[in-house]
Amino acid sequence: MGAYSIRDLERLSGIKAHTIRIWEKRYGLIEPHRTTTNIRTYCDSELKKLMNISILNRHGIKISKIAQFNQKEINDKINAIMQHISDDQSQIEALTIAMIEYDEVKFERILARSILQFGFEDTIIKIIYPFLVKIGLMWQTGNINPAQEHFVSGLMRQKIYVAIDSMINDRKADSKQFLFFLPEGEWHELGILFFAYLAKKRGHQIIYLGQSVPLSDVVEIMRIKSFDALITAFVSSINKRNIQSYIEMLGEKTGYKPLFVSGLQTENHRHDFPSHATVIISPLHFIEELEKIGKS
Fold it and tell me: Which phi and psi angles does 62 have, rounded to 5°?
């Protein structure tokens, strides 16, 4: 069970803390627990309720009206909206609720509807990637447990692998060769797995080494094969100095090949890395970089 501060709720729901307090005080929509020092904390059920309220409100139902609904009425109206849900934020919130509830059927239904509406790539860019960022915030604040993270990762990993395997690229004169891997001790692969999909979809050759790859293995494969760029990520907690040290060592051992890095731990330090390293802040940014390197 999560124990969220009001600032956690603000980051995860997108609803301002001031608004949450008003809804709490005026309408009694959510009920915080209080610590011995009188600090508000909120549990998973309060987060789910807040996200459901946000979806209902976004679809035109006034807060004063929502406050009169019992839980069954809220659930019934959410289920009705879910049949036709189309805005990105509501789908992200619905996926978060499905994750908290370990509801695979709901998760798959939301995903399938989005893929049918937008296509696989746009679904990942518009829905899944922002959802993963939200999960990252929950992970950093200690409000997602490993089982929930594995639940979501397993479902998404299967779909991306299938999408990658469905494409067979012949080697062309203008195609590039990319090496994807995670540093040793890093296990959060969904981001670079999707980047591998984006590269392959655009006609490039990819080799995907996966999670927790020793630096010696990266050096060995580069001794055998030539690559135009390397792609990695830092999601787990690691300090800036250690990231910089790893990137520098990787550059020394691989001839300072262009390196693309992503992940929560890199975004605040994008201007502090060596010139051969580019911090990727989103799938669209990576697509832009693919276009640049494809023209070189």
Answer: -70, 150
pLDDT value, residue 235: 81
Instruction: Report d(CA 191, CA 194) in Å as an integer.
Output: 5
Higher pLDDT, 4 or 182: 182
3-state DSSP assignment of residue 295: helix
| Alpha helical stretches, state H, 101-239 | 104-118, 120-123, 129-140, 146-165, 190-201, 215-224
Whole-angstrom distance, CA of residue 25 vs CA of residue 175: 59
How far apart are the C-alpha atoms of 10 and 212, rounded to whole Å? 33
Kind and range of the H or E run holding 189: none
Of 166, 185, 215, the position where a domain reaches its end is 166
CB under 8 Å to 88, separation ≥6 — which residues? Answer: 126, 127, 130
Total domains present in the chain: 3
Local structure of residue 60 (DSSP, 8 states): T
Size of the chain in residues: 296
For residue 200, the enclosing domain spans 169-295
* pTM (2 d.p.): 0.77
Q: Tell me, what CATH number does 52's domain have? A: 1.10.1660.10
CB-based contacts of 76, cutoff 8 Å, min separation 6:
none
On the question of pLDDT at 1 being above 60, the answer is no
Cβ of 148: how many Cβ atoms within 10 Å?
20
Buried b (16+ CB within 10 A) or exposed e, 50-69: bbbbbbbeeeebeeeebeeb
